[in-house]
Each structure stands twice: as structure tokens, then as C-alpha cells.
TrEMBL record:
Residues 1-136 form the Threonyl-tRNA synthetase editing domain. GO terms for cellular component: cytoplasm. It comes from the Archaea. This is Threonyl-tRNA synthetase editing domain-containing protein. InterPro entries: DTD-like_sf (IPR023509), Threonyl-tRNA_syn_edit_dom_arc (IPR015011). It comes from Methanoregula boonei (strain DSM 21154 / JCM 14090 / 6A8). It holds the Pfam family tRNA-Thr_ED. One of its GO terms (molecular function) is ATP binding. Transmembrane segments: none annotated.
Amino acid sequence: MKLLMFDTNEFWYKPFQKTLETAQTAVDEAAFADSLVIFVNVEEEDELQKDKSIRKAAENILWLAKKTGRTKVVLHSFAHLSESKSGIGFAEAALQGIRDRLAAKGLTVAITPFGYFLEFKIHVKGESLAKVWKSV
């Protein structure tokens, strides 16, 4: 699993185009202030170690949340961080698993609409920890 993590002042998105027929109907748009925005690429090899991959991803996000003092997280499926990609159903389930682990630790977590291309704006802070990449 690959994580590209941003400490943001603002993140806004609007669904642009549905890419999966089975995707649920998405809301018009949403905005989040003072949040960690996590671009997640779930890889094929994560399917072989589901619990470990989800646990390690959540641990990395929790680490950054503690370092930055953030309590809100937005997870965004972004299959462009690696050439390896898991199955669609597994990727969606992995995001939900990460969300559940983070919520259990007291964070407020949202997931962008799965199965859509999004139009988005992101205002990332300038500090070094505002832009973190991890391979878990």
C-alpha cells in the first residue's frame, strides 16, 4: 500500500465522472478544513496480508495525526501511486478498514466517493511534515 499524506488547511472535491457502474451515487461536493488528506493506493500484494496492510496504514496515519495535531482525516483512493493495484472490491474494503481503525482511535474520518474521478482543490501547509509519502 502506498500513502501520500498531506496536512491541509483546506480540501474540497466535487465528483466529476463515475468510473465504476457499481459505485454508489455521490454527493454534489464536500469541503474539509484543517484535515489530513491521505491519497491511498491499495496494491495487489496487500490482498495477501490484508490485516497487516490496513493496520500499518492506520498506524502511519495516526503517527502523522499526532505529529500535526490533526483530528480529521479524509481518505481518497488514488490508484496512481504504484503500478500494482488490488482488485476494486478489496481496495474499497481496505479504505473502510483503515477508516474503522482510525475512528476507533477517536479521529473523524471521511472517504471520498469511491469509483469516481474527482475535481478537487487542496491547500497544503508548507512544513516538512505536511507532505509525507509512505510505502507500507
